[in-house]
Each structure stands twice: as C-alpha cells, then as structure tokens.
Amino acid sequence: MKNITTRKILLLIVISSVFFPKICFLQTDTLRLVFAGDIMGHAPQIASAQIIKNQTYNYESCFRYVKPILEQADLAIGNLEVTLPGKPPYTGYPMFRSPDELASALKNAGFDILVTANNHANDARGAGVASTIQTLRNLEFMQTGTFLHQRDRTAHYPLMVYKNRFKIALLNYTYDTNGVPTQAPTIVNLIDKQQIAKDLAEAVARKPHFIVVVMHWGLEYQLTESPEQRELATFLISHGADMVIGSHPHVVQPVRLERVAMPDGTIKEALVVYSLGNFISNQQQPNTDGGILFQVDLLKNRNTPTVQVGNHGIIPVWRYIEKTAGGKTNFYAVPVARAELFREPTPNMTTMARNNMLNFAKGLRKRMPFNELKI
Predict the structure, then answer these.
(1) Is the C or the N end of the chain the one with fewer CB within 10 Å?
(2) Helices marked H in 59-218
(3) pLDDT at position 310
(4) Could you tell me if residue 343 is inside a domain?
C-alpha cells in the first residue's frame, strides 16, 4: 500500500512538471544589499590603530560589533573616504592618507565593494589614487568610482556584479575633489550629467536586473537633502537608476521613495537614501557621531528579469570612542539597537557614552520615521 501511494505521488509530480512547469518549479532568488556610510580616517583613528609607528597598524576591533550584520549580507558596500598611499606619512584631515591595514580590516569585517569617488579621492595625488585601487583589488574587493586610466575605466565601468543569479550595475560619482586636480592618467568620476547619462545608457544596454548609483553629494552637516540632490536623484532615476545611495554630508538625511515621470509617460518608483551619515570617524560636530546601515532585499522569480524591492530598512550605527584605563583610545562602530538591549557587545561603555548613544538614536528616530530593522 505504501509503495502504491509513493508511485502515485511521483506520477503527480511528473505530470505537474510537464503541464505546469512554471508553477511547479518557480523559485525566488534573493539578494541582500547592505550600504554603509562614510569610512573616515582621522588622525586619532590612525593613532588608535598604531602598533609600531609608520610600520604596523590594526583596525580589526573597530568593526567587530557590526561584522555579523555585514557578513549576513550578500553584498556589503561602503564609501571609503580615505586614500591608501601604501607608505607614510599617514595623516587625517584635511588630507586623508591611511594605512593599508584599514582596508584589510574592512575586508575581514565583511565588506565586498568599496566606492572611491569622493571629495578626498585625490588627497594623495595620482599615485595615491592608483595605490588605493591596487590595494583594494589585491585584497579582492570590488571597487569603482576611480580608475588607473581610461582603459581601466572602459574595461570595468559600469561595475557589473554577479551574485545569487542577479546581475547588478553599480555606478559612483562625486561632486568635487576639494579643488585638487586629478593627475593623468588616473580618473575620478565627477558629477557631470552628460557623462552620467552616457554611463547609465551603457548600464541599461547591458541589461542588468538592477542599477544602483552611489552619489557623493549634498551639503555637509545638513539634516535634509538640498534641492540639487533632489533634482539629481530625479535625473538619475529617469535615466535608468533603480536605487540611489548618498554620502558626504556626514549626517543622516532622509530615505524617500521617489516617484519620477519617465520619458514613456510611466511613473517609476525608486528608493533614494540621501545620506547614510558616518560609519566610523572622529568627527565631533552635532549628529556626526553615527549613521545608518541601509539594508534592502532584492527579489525576483527565477528566469525572469523583473526585480522587486523586498524587506528594507535602516540599522542605526553609533561611533563609540572608548578611553581605556591605560590611556589608549579605541574606535568602534556599534549597532545601536543591540547596545540598547544588551550591555554587550560593549560591556565597557560608560554611562556618559551610553547616554550620548541614546541621544543620537532618539534624534535620528524622531526625524527619520523609516522602518528600523531588527537585528
């Protein structure tokens, strides 16, 4: 009797697969993206990581508390707002030159992609642009926004990323390089609408499932986006962008679902994160002591090109500066929600620091009525 039932079940599966193949074998592919804000390298951060001056550094502890979140992502993307010249002097503001060990720690923390088009891209001149790119590639990062030369850009831009049966196009631009000219043959992608339109047309022609543009834009320390940011977001979406992620203001700006009229008369909706804020830094201005991770799940039925935006939201992250009894300073990127619930992962956080973290979170949540993800 049992054998007869098994045969019937197998026969039904075979019949279903023949007459209803799409229903029987339809599967959903998922791709989880996590975006982190400005990764800075101020002088106190360099001093904190120093083991032997100008020789060895260790940044691993900075990211220990966010590592589980980054590792759960299929693709973790960050804005590297320093150069990696590969040799001293290592300096903070205003010319950011950090040791290569910072990149190693970011790789070990779970980052997959670093974008490098920002206003500090030329801080170590052309040699620094090239060294930064080579260091990241040697560590097996995917990287975009700056290039060794035109042939490099032609070969690798837009950055095409293949993961979990998804094909993603990633583009990256900056408003300026602090007035420091880009030295040939290196290239830093600047915000130029004519060039961006060409790049997005190329991205669309490659038929990716989703197009993400990371913009270094806006006004520093402003809690709302500027009219120029909104206009640029509309431009990017109308030319093919499916999501826009912003950095540079060093504070968190709104996340909005923008609705844009397309050339064919349809209305396209796209998420725009106007600024992720700081991921880790030593900045002391109001609201610069933290930022958000933006997590989004992309969904598509297998063998179909249409992508839907699934569960998405923000994960507040606060920069904790620990002063040890021995006089050492440590920098940590701390997921706020977990630190609120548990004394670990930061058992040594002082009452004053904890209150500062809570105040940061309170202000952020008050002005950001956006879905906060549980972690």
Answers:
(1) N
(2) 67-72, 101-109, 125-138, 150-156, 193-205
(3) 96
(4) yes
Mean pLDDT of 132-151: 98
Would you say residue 42 lies in a domain?
yes
What DSSP state is assigned to residue 321? E
Cα angle, residue 72 at apex, residues 200 and 272 outer, rounded to 5°: 35
Per-residue pLDDT at 304:
80
Q: What Cα–Cα distance (Å) separates residue 243 from each residue in 233, 271, 275, 309, 355?
A: 9, 5, 13, 10, 34
Domain count, the chain: 1
- CATH number of the domain where residue 323 is located: 3.60.21.10
Q: Which domain holds residue 98?
A: 27-367
Report the candidate in 304, 241, 250 with the shortest Cα–Cα distance to residue 276.
250
- Residue 290 domain-assigned? yes
Averaging pLDDT over each range in 2-11, 26-35, 244-253, which range is the top one? 244-253
Q: Which two tokens stand for residue 209?
A: 């499932």
Contact call for residues 213 and 244 (beta carbons, < 8 A)? yes
Q: Can you give the pLDDT at residue 342?
A: 76
pTM score of the predicted model:
0.92
Tell whether 1 is covered by a domain.
Answer: no
